Amino acid sequence: MDLTQALSSLMGIGLASGLNIYAEVLTVGLAQRLGWLTGAPEGLALLAHPGILAVAGVRYAFEFVADKIPVVTPVWDSLHTFIRQ
Q1: Which residues make Cβ contacts (< 8 Å) with residue 66, sequence separation at least 6?
Q2: How far is the C-alpha of 35 from the C-alpha of 5, rounded, in Å?
Q3: 16 and 36 in contact (C-beta within 8 Å)?
Q4: Distance CA 46, CA 32 (A)
């Protein structure tokens, strides 16, 4: 892999890391599946699996909507705080 490809891959992952975890998994997985992301570690190949993409997409959509509903937001945030602990 030449330097241009390596920098392109790293810049794409860097952009995705500014998003939430579900959007990042979806972005990196789709980029791998469509051939836009090359030279990534082999462990990340799992993110391109259709099941992982579907779960990440649904969870991202739910989190996007949950963030807009006042009652759901604190419950969602509490759940994720518990998961991160």
Answers
A1: 72, 73, 76
A2: 12
A3: no
A4: 10
